[in-house]
Amino acid sequence: MVESLEVAFQGSKAVINRPLADLERLVASDRQLYASYYQRLGAEVQAPDGNAWDSWRRMADATLFPLFEERIRFAALSLDGMGLQSYGECSLVLREELIAHRASVFEDNSAVFLRDRGYQLSPGHRAVWEDRSRLGVAKLASAVHTGTVPADFPGLLVQQGQTAEEDRFIEVHIWGPVTARTCQCAILIPKGGKAGQAFRKALRARLAAQGVELEVR
Amino acid sequence: MHAVISGRAGVALLLDGQQLSSLHAGAGEIVRRKEREIPYLLGEATDLQYLENVETPEISRRLEMAAAQADALHLALILLDPELPQEVRCDAAGELEDLLKIQDVRKDVEGILFARPLPGEADLRGALSCCSGNADAARDLLIGLERLQTEYPLYESEKLFVAEGAPDSYQAGGEDIKNRE
Fold first, then answer.
1. Which of A49, A191, A199 is nearest residue B74 as measured by Cβ atoms?
2. pLDDT per position as a tens digit, B112-157
């Protein structure tokens, strides 16, 4: 079964979750970019958390991406296209061919992981994109037992918490720009509001114009 | 209790003492939150309303109204977008019609759309053709918008008359209006 897990993880995708309004802005034109956290802060379109997370995030990023943290976009590794709902109801599944050469993976939420285990990182918690299945097996093989079936794998890889801090996942780090065209598909879980058909049809049409499929679950 | 409402995000953040929670449009459930979740709940929304010393029913009412206003504006923009398929624009006209029957929604949408000339790419004629026989409120909104497009240059010239210390702008603006006539 562990071998099945490794094979399944070889097909895993990087998924970014954002609120619906952010997706609508991203698909509004070809010139819209998905900015990194630090770029949003620098452009003053987003305020910092204003709590301990600011320092945990900065310390983790300074450890993992010294002097290039502002170029990094974060995603989660997923088998079924569903990302972390704490970050928004839209899961953007990225095209592997457009990110594989500039992505790496980390065992968990790096801010939480390094806060809890210290900032002297030992080998074995991080891998290049091509080795993501090995990292996944190293992390999750102990969670596989005789009753585990392949249908359980997506839930092992992405464990939705009550809050973002409680989410358990493999973090993907992507260097450089992301646009709507970097996405293969968008998966939407409606939260209420904007339930009308016109919104979805308009979103579907705008995504299709940029080669992106929309799936509503 | 204090609250921050965004119709665009369809969410209200509630602060009761030190307790943070959220309420979503179209859903009555209140969800406990942590501070760091705020950016992900509001996204890039800038239409924030700050309410002080209010109770949950009032917050819920204001949220539903703000969400309806944001949805109506979004539908109007879909209706005016020539790059979207006709079928989608016609659906938008039908849904907009329902929302415009709410008086405060109509006033809010007009307040935004009527404030400035439409950009050149907006397709008013196409939008009007998408309004079916019973989409009277949506059609009225578009007709009002169309009428204003011819009146904006007059408003602009009046604004230039009252502008202080800008003779160059006035001259340039005046010539521009003259050329358009």
1. A199
2. 998 888 888 899 999 999 998 888 899 999 999 988 887 766 666 6
Co-location of B68 and B114 in the same domain: yes
Integer Cα distance of A148 and A135 in angstroms: 19
B10 closest CB neighbour out of A47, A53, A192: A192
Instruction: Give the per-residue pLDDT at B57.
Output: 94
Q: What is the Cα–Cα distance from A179 to A35, expressed in whole angstroms? A: 9
pTM check: above 0.90? no
With beta carbons under 8 A apart, name residues in chain A contacting B40: 18-19, 86-88, 164
> What's the rounded Cα separation, in Å, for the pair B36 and B29?
20
One domain for residues B86 and B16: no
Task: Please state the domain count of chain A.
Answer: 1
CA distance B95 to chain A (A): 7
CB A209 within 8 A of CB A201: no
Q: Which residues contact A40 (CB under 8 A, 6 or more apart)?
A: A46
Is residue B171 one of the residues assigned to a domain? no
Interface pTM (ipTM) of the complex? 0.72
Determine the longest span between alpha carbons in chain B, in angstroms. Answer: 61
Which residue range forms the structural domain that includes residue A137?
2-216
Secondary structure of chain B in HEC code, one letter for each residue: CEEEEECCCCEEEEEECCEEEEEECCCCCEEECCHHHHHHHHCCCCCEEEECCCCHHHHHHHHHHHHHHHHHHHHHHHHHCCCCCHHHHHHHHHHHHHHHCCHHHHHHHHHHHCCCCCCCCCCHHHHHHCCCCCCHHHHHHHHHHHHHHHHHHHHHHHHHHHCCCCHHHHHHHHHHHHHHC
